[in-house]
Write a structure and sequence with these properties.
The structure holds two protein chains of two kinds.
Chain A: H1 2-10, H2 12-34, H3 66-102, H4 104-118, H5 122-133, H6 137-164, H7 167-175, H8 179-215, H9 227-234, H10 243-270
Chain B: E1 6-17, E2 20-32, E3 37-41, H1 48-55, E4 63-71, E5 74-75, H2 81-87, E6 92-95, H3 99-102, H4 109-121, H5 125-138, H6 144-149, H7 157-169, E7 175-179, H8 187-204, E8 207-212, H9 215-221, E9 224-229, E10 232-238, H10 239-244, H11 249-257, E11 276-287, H12 292-296, E12 304-315, E13 319-323, H13 330-337, E14 344-349, E15 352-354, H14 362-367, E16 368-371, H15 375-378, H16 385-396, H17 404-414, H18 431-444, E17 449-453, H19 461-478, E18 481-486, H20 489-495, E19 498-503, E20 506-512, H21 523-531, H22 538-547
Parallel strand pairs in B: 3-8, 3-9, 6-7, 7-8, 13-18, 13-19, 16-17, 17-18
Antiparallel strand pairs in B: 1-2, 1-4, 4-5, 9-10, 11-12, 11-14, 14-15, 19-20
Classes of the chains: A mainly alpha, B alpha/beta.
Amino acid sequence: MADLFRRLRGSPQGLLGLILVGVMLLIVVVGPWVAPFDPETFAPLQRYKGPSGAHWLGTDQYGRDILSRLLVGARATVLMAMLASLLGTLAGALLGTTSAYLGGRADEAIMRTIDAVLSIPSLLMALLIVTLLGKSAGNALLAIAIAFTPGMARVTRSVALAVRKQEYVAAAIARGESARYIVWREMLPNVVAPIVVEMTIRVAFAVMLFATLSFLGLGAQPPKPEWGLMVSESRRFMHLSPWMIVWPSLAIATVAIGFNLLGDGLRDALNPRTS
Amino acid sequence: MTLPVLSVDGYTLDYAVRDGFTRALDDVSLTIAGGEVLGLVGESGSGKTSLAWAIMRHLPASARESGRIALGELALTGATEAIVRDVRGKRIGMVFQDPSTSLNPTLPLGRQIAEVLVTHRGLAPAEAWREGEALLAKVGIRAPAAMMRRYPHEASGGEKQRVVIATAFACQPELILFDEPTTALDVMTARAILDLFATLQAETHVASLWISHDLAVVASVAQRVAVIHRGRIVESAAAHDVFAAPRADYTRQLLAAVPSPQRRLAGAAPEGEASPLLAVEHIHVRYGRRSLLDALLRRPADSVQGNRDVSLVLRRGEILGIVGESGSGKSTLARALTGLNPFTGRIRFGDLAIDAARAMGRDYRRDVQIVFQHPDSSLNPRQRVREILSRPLRLYGRSEGRPETETIAALLEQVRLPASFADRFPHQLSGGEKQRVAIARAFASQPKLVICDEITSSLDVSVQAAVVALLVELQRAHGTSVLFITHDLNLVRQIAHRIVVMLKGEVVETLDVAGLPGSARHDYTRALLAAVPQIVSSAADDEVASLR
């Protein structure tokens, strides 16, 4: 583990990704305590202000402090995105590994179904699920997790197929191990590396999907300080104060870039051949 | 006195690693005169391939060298890239271990030979093509014109190696480096390549460096032999002297480790009418599944026959060897017997009669264990030795009331490994140690039959000798029956009681080892026996005698 971090710091993408994601996670943890104002208190006299000494990033249409809203909203945005990718990855990894283990007709049936689901764009898929389940942050999380599952299953299966051919799997079958043991204990630990990489990159997508869903009014509901929602609300007031839309957009972009870089760095660090 | 073709003087090579340097070659000195074949023998990691690359001047950026390598009068160490380019292929040829990776799969074989001739001998393309055909004819390819147009995947391993050799000889170089050229080939193909080399060598008088881990092969081609151990040349003398009267201790150990039919390791065969433990009756294995589309269109399945009508009997406490070249269906049979391949036919095991892989119950799974060829891939890299060994114990409850830790320590002890190895991961063990863990795992459920599928073919000779001795000892202690699958006839004659010879998925004949080589009836068995290289050495036998 310590060795992994050392290698991660060795590459420029890895180092930058590590810093960006680290700062984001710090904000997620301590954000609400360091926020200078309450994120949901109206201040009618302070509307549409640009950056100033009192309000570092300015205020929005109700005079709420944008910095505070960003700091508090990090939990709703980044944490939810990570949870959604984790859930989707876990489901996809399990499905892909099982499919590779079973092989033959069962593999064929599972993978063709997944191909069919995969042909629906993930945003459309998420929209469909949220519309069916009703709009709430929890349902948006579930929707994104489900939308990610087929893609992850595909990635995992391709790695798991190579693992399936290894003799330790043959040894386990010959020993009479149960299918559950072989999938969980023999195969899954050996497909983890590429999955972790794929997952970090997916977190960036999840942040953007969440923001998109909130932007469309299907995720978090006002007055929640969710970043996508903030962009969506401030769109109407762009001509009054452009800062309102710039800051949350920048925050979303930073998270996306941070996780993408971390994913790139991890891919190099986890692959012994490129180090 | 004429100048040697190749002279290496006090050559030392280091590779830079994370903390400092690791020494690959240490003060190596050797010479090869015109028309001479020098055999370089060593185990994996001894630096023999590093030396070949140093002569070819193809070293990674992390290499630090000192000393001198010279081709005739030309000093190769310190030569510019332009000079080196001129030497490679033209004055020094090279033949690699695996012909399927040393040829470009996207170009026809003819193009690859002609290219060398155009670059180094300045021939016109049409001329080069004709010359290429002549060269292929010379290396014993029956239809050279047709072979020129084929792609590498359309030729057999032996044919590909002939093409590579033709390419190496194409520019009449002064020196050819052979890096384990027969290791990836079957016994019979290897024999043919060795004969071809002898003919070409006598014709062209090219100087050669023949690198190999196989002492028997080197004994049959080289006039002089250098033995390399951990980057140092420990002995260098005429081939006959090295094998008849080795001076270095290391050489003696190596020679003693080489399997030889004269030195039996196994105990006496079980008494004549011992009851059969396993009877394989008319087993067929087919690869390839009939797809849904085939079924819809009523097409026959496009399948490959792995085993055809295989029948054999294994007695209690017997070691039965199965030999054959690659593709003869030995491993297919092993996988069918352990339920990894679907089969038709019947397996009788004690009182059980099994007609399909699905019918293998708990008892059968416990009593039949398998050890695979590659210890790297048969041990899960993410599990510690403790977990690997605990699985069969938990599945079949063979701890017998003792705490599991104790049982695992006893299992490790049985294969001569310290108990502390339980906490290691497989990558922290050497190849031989890994294979010992795999053997311990197989014996953990106290099986009646252990199937060994080429368990020593990825190990060095000396490690192989130790692993095989251990296996025979365990077999004797537990009275287990062993199905020992190998391509190495010398090895199998050392340990097996009877031998089954397989060819193209079928059993050719079954022989008692005691009667060999005279009792071989089938032509194929006789050819196989004749193709196996042997070292005639009294010293090795003395060494063994002194070990006892």
